[in-house]
Design a protein that fits this description.
The complex is a heterodimer of chains A (587) and B (135).
Chain A (H helix, E strand, L loop, with lengths): L6 E6 L4 E6 L1 H7 L2 H12 L13 E4 L13 E6 L6 E6 L3 H7 L4 E5 L6 E6 L2 E6 L9 H11 L7 E4 L2 H4 L7 E3 L3 E3 L4 H7 L2 E7 L3 E3 L3 H17 L4 H5 L6 H7 L20 H7 L1 E5 L9 E9 L7 E8 L1 H6 L9 H14 L3 H16 L5 H4 L9 H12 L3 H7 L3 H8 L7 E2 L2 E2 L7 H9 L5 H4 L1 H11 L5 H21 L11 H10 L6 H21 L12 H4 L9 H16 L4
Helix pairs in contact in A: 2-21, 2-23, 12-15, 15-16, 18-20, 18-25, 21-23, 21-25
Chain B lengths: L2 E5 L10 H8 L3 E3 L6 E4 L7 E4 L8 H5 L5 E3 L4 E3 L9 H5 L6 E3 L4 E3 L6 H5 L5 E5 L4
Antiparallel strand pairs in B: 1-9, 3-4, 5-6, 7-8
Chain lengths: 587, 135
């Protein structure tokens, strides 16, 4: 393995100092990404630490395949989540992974809090702490990116990671934005940046990485490239992007609409993947090293509101999750309105999913009289009313008054104060993703280490069961999801995009590592995945997480899925099995 | 007839950098240190990209700028003699389209040899080879 992978750059924002530590054994035994990340987090984050304390660490890790293999395009961030109070783990593509690796590092650790707002520029071995007082308080994260593009070198191979007003104001679900259209979206990394007075990170590098087994490497690269480009495995991400999920989920009655009061629109929504591609798709982009290019940008051309013959064209990145959260979940019916809401959330730097679910909860709470105009600052949230929602997004990002201050911490906190827990759609304190497919999806949201749909993809199990006429069995399904999540720990340690999980089977991963001089058996890889998953669970338990204490909002049982009504007792049984699987002593 | 590398359709570029990584693999290595091709956004990724490739000039300014005769004409484009090169960077300054890349690790220029490997790995048909009648 290339020796620079084991180099960890530590940036101390309190002292404005940076140094390099070498962790060769850690990267040999834990690969990188999630595997290395959880070890560093465990070591650097003392039990019970306030996630927004100066000492709270942020760990970014890439992996042995980064910058070498197709679709090994992600960076893993680990931190203590200000939203859930336990494990914060978020994955991002863009250019982030390649930039960090080619700057000469396998990991970057941030600690401390700067006295004044700064941004940190890392160009190869050089680390600069630059004054960001001029950038602090800017109304949009997009402007910050534009300015840094002009003043920093590395055009074409750098990453620019920044926060918006929501991060500065420490909203619990503020994200960090990369390259304008990609995100460390979930679990509040943006708030942690804000707490450190860190506005942005710019990273660039152009190192070479030596390959021990050159011929085998070239051959395997070609094979994987061909599979990614020519096989049907990646086609859905290629053509319509993840937005292609909207229409089929709607048709099968699994799309959460209006805070999950219904599960479909009568007709295909105006913001389905097909309709957006026809009417709005303006450009496609890829993360560095990915031939698929799943990133879809809508070009929204609109007349200037005041001046005739002036137009503005806004590019908005759309994916299934933001379309669900800021579209169907809040009852939107027109595509431009959804795109404008997504854009508003991007400017503020909030997680689109959590923000949309928070707006949906607020709308229902307002309808039911739990929340009143005196709470909302005079706004009257109603399904599909874009302007009101856009105004609320700003108030959330600025934590404007008690109501928005609580809403900025998530629906759990807001419902604890105002009521309406039965329709506060969060699992493990994280707002739900856009799949109401059946018990598998909800078991993933509840038990997944990040409470993300991507942890173990229970929605895919739901659909497989429907196709095969399988009856959901909580024990067997918990087992399946555990195995799936365990293998995904290997992928996220390497760090491979989960969309390429079909390409990177255990034997392929073994071969890829062998070309880099790292010998693993598939059994050892599988074991490693389970170990990492258990290490993450142990961290959560250390920080107070209890599987049995998870809240299950009653709303999900009231509205049938394609599998019929979800039974909370079924979920509890699944969770007990999952707990047993996770509680084994880590190896 | 020899062939040179050309940008066929820039509208399909998605900034994946697979071309630049393919170029690095010529030497059996990863990374971007010795990649002869570069992709840059036109002021933000939403505006699209430019792929900087050597034009294989008939009368190459980089060759004339070299004070030690380390750059020679090839059937297509030029070849650099790294032994003779003193790393002065004059060739880079002479190429106004920025197609002379720089190997910072060795302080030497990297100039495209028009082998076409990058085009083979471009997944969206941005790059191609076309026949040249000079040379």
């Amino acid at each position: 393995m290339d020796s620079t992978l084991a180099r960890v750059l530590v940036v101390d924002l309190s002292q404005h100092r940076a140094w390099v530590e070498e962790w060769p054994e850690l990267f040999q035994t834990r690969l990188g990404g999630t595997g290395v990340g959880i070890e560093l987090l465990e070591k650097l984050c003392p039990p019970g630490l306030d996630p927004l304390a100066p000492e709270a660490p942020v760990v970014f890790v890439v992996g042995p395949l980064t910058a070498l293999f197709p679709l090994a395009s992600k960076t893993v961030a680990m931190f203590k989540s200000p939203q859930t109070g336990n494990l914060g783990e978020s994955h991002c593509g863009g250019r982030s992974a390649v930039a960090l690796r080619l700057a000469g590092f396998g990991a970057l650790v941030l600690v401390g809090r700067s006295q004044v707002p700064v941004y940190v520029a890392i160009h190869g071995e050089k680390v600069h702490f630059r004054d960001a007082r001029t950038l602090w308080g800017m109304s949009s994260s997009v402007t910050v990116g534009r300015i840094l593009r002009e003043v920093e070198p590395g055009s074409g191979y750098r990453t620019i990671l920044r926060i918006g007003p929501a991060g500065e104001n420490r909203c619990a679900y503020a994200g960090v934005i990369a390259e304008t259209y990609r995100h460390f979206g979930r679990l509040g990394l943006g708030a942690v940046f804000g707490s450190k007075n860190l506005k942005a990170l710019v990273i660039s590098g152009k190192r070479a990485i030596p390959i021990p087994a050159k011929a085998a490497y070239q051959a395997l690269y070609r094979t994987l490239h061909e599979q990614a480009v020519k096989s049907g495995a990646m086609k859905k991400y290629h053509d319509l992007g993840t937005a292609q999920n909207v229409a089929p989920l709607n048709e099968m009655g699994a799309l959460p609409v209006r805070n999950l009061r219904v599960q479909r629109y009568p007709e295909e929504p105006a913001f389905s993947g097909e309709r957006l591609a026809q009417g709005f798709l303006g450009r496609r982009l890829a993360c560095t090293g990915c031939p698929v290019a799943c990133i879809h940008l809508a070009a929204l051309r609109e007349p200037h509101p005041l001046e005739p013959y002036f137009y503005k064209t806004t590019f908005v990145s759309y994916d299934h999750e933001p379309l669900y959260a800021l579209g169907s979940m809040v009852g939107m019916t027109n595509a431009p309105g959804v795109l404008r809401l997504i854009d508003a959330v991007e400017h503020m730097g909030l997680d689109a999913i959590s923000c949309g679910v928070a707006l949906a909860w607020a709308t229902e709470a307002f309808e039911r009289g739990l929340v009143r105009e005196k709470d909302t600052g005079g706004l009257r949230p109603r399904w599909g009313e874009e302007e009101t929602y856009a105004a609320m997004v700003k108030k959330i990002a600025h934590r404007d008054g008690e109501f928005y201050d609580l809403l900025a911490q998530g629906v759990d906190k807001a419902a604890a104060r105002y009521g309406g827990e039965e329709f506060a759609l969060a699992f493990g304190s994280l707002e739900m993703p856009g799949y109401h497919t059946g018990p598998g999806a909800y078991l993933t949201y509840l038990s997944g280490s990040r409470h993300s749909h991507l942890d173990s993809a229970g929605y895919a199990l739901d659909q497989e069961a429907l196709n095969r006429g399988m009856a959901p069995d909580p024990e067997a399904w918990a087992q399946r999801l555990f195995q799936e999540e365990a293998w995904r720990q290997v992928l996220s340690s390497l760090v491979i995009c989960f969309f390429a999980r079909g390409l990177y089977t255990p034997p392929t991963v073994q071969q890829a590592l062998a070309t880099l001089g790292s010998e693993w058996t598939t059994a050892a890889l599988t074991q490693l995945g389970e170990d990492i998953l258990r290490r993450k669970y142990a961290f959560k338990v250390r920080e107070g997480f209890r599987m049995a204490g998870l809240r299950i909002p009653t709303r999900i049982a009231e509205l049938p899925t394609p599998h019929g009504a979800v039974d909370p007792d079924w979920l509890r049984r699944g969770l007990r099995v999952m707990e047993q699987l996770l509680a084994h002593a880590p190896g | 007839m020899p062939k040179r590398l050309v940008v066929v359709d820039i509208e399909r570029c998605v900034d994946c950098l697979l071309c630049a990584f393919a170029c690095a693999r010529r030497f059996g290595e990863g990374g971007l240190a010795r990649s002869a091709i570069a992709v840059r956004s036109l002021g933000g990724v939403e505006r699209g990209f430019t792929v900087v490739v050597c034009r294989a000039c008939e009368d190459p300014p980089c060759l004339h700028a070299c004070p030690v005769g380390a750059i020679e004409k090839a059937p297509v484009g030029v070849r650099v003699s790294l032994e003779r090169c003193i790393g002065c960077g004059k060739c880079r300054q002479a190429c106004i389209i920025g197609a002379v890349q720089w190997d910072e690790e060795n302080n030497k220029p990297v100039i495209c040899v028009h082998c076409g490997l990058c085009a083979r790995f471009c997944p969206h048909g941005v790059l191609g080879l076309e026949e040249v009648d000079h040379g």
